[in-house]
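Intended use. Records such as the Protein-methionine-sulfoxide reductase catalytic subunit MsrP entry shown here are meant for training and evaluating sequence-to-structure methods. They are not intended to support clinical decisions.
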Amino acid sequence: MATRGFVGRRSPEETQKRLPPGQHRVEDFPILQIGPNPTIDLATWRFTLREGAKPLKSWSWDEFQALPRTAWQGDIHCVTKWSKFDTGWEGVSFDDLLADARIAAPTDFLLAEGYDDYSTNVPVADLAGGRAMIATHYEGAPIEPDHGGPARLFVPHLYLWKSAKWLKGLRFTKKDEAGFWEMRGYHMYGDPWREQRYTSD
Ligand SMILES: Nc1nc2c(c(=O)[nH]1)N[C@H]1C(S)=C(S)[C@@H](COP(=O)(O)O)O[C@H]1N2
Ligand SMILES: [Mo]
């Protein structure tokens, strides 16, 4: 009740200030992906950290549930120009993941890889320091398959294509390697506030 009233009274100026350049606000939650939802069975789900081809650490679903949990609330921005305000997410922070694996990040870059054939590159510095999580819950409920459940990467300060759905693992790479969309003309970094949509931006 209080939240709805507050949202209703928000001034156009406040909305504008929270919108990165070229974005508009939506109330729904669009679904964008390169193919059908992959079929994922929690009994066989695994999440793996790799350095190149070498596995560093992997978690079953039950093991993953035992990790410390983190919550985040705020705005998300898609390169297709919609932004959604005040979204709530919960999961395991990248920092807690590395702590559980008892490793420091071995390189400065990684590729987030989905159970479909999707991948996207993110600098390690953008995941560390509480800036990203492996999200399992959206608005208090398990993330729906359409939005990447059971677990997706969530990096809210970058365009949403960096938040790989149906996350299978994170692969540390020596260099900043392009992922699926970055190979097809999307920006290597993707900062919404600098409007880094395409390679040339
Ligand atoms: N595994 C996987 N993750 C993905 C994608 C995909 O095709 N496969 N699409 C990306 C793109 S382009 C966007 S804009 C967001 C959309 O997330 P949403 O469907 O939850 O809005 O997911 C990103 N993560
Ligand atoms: Mo996208």
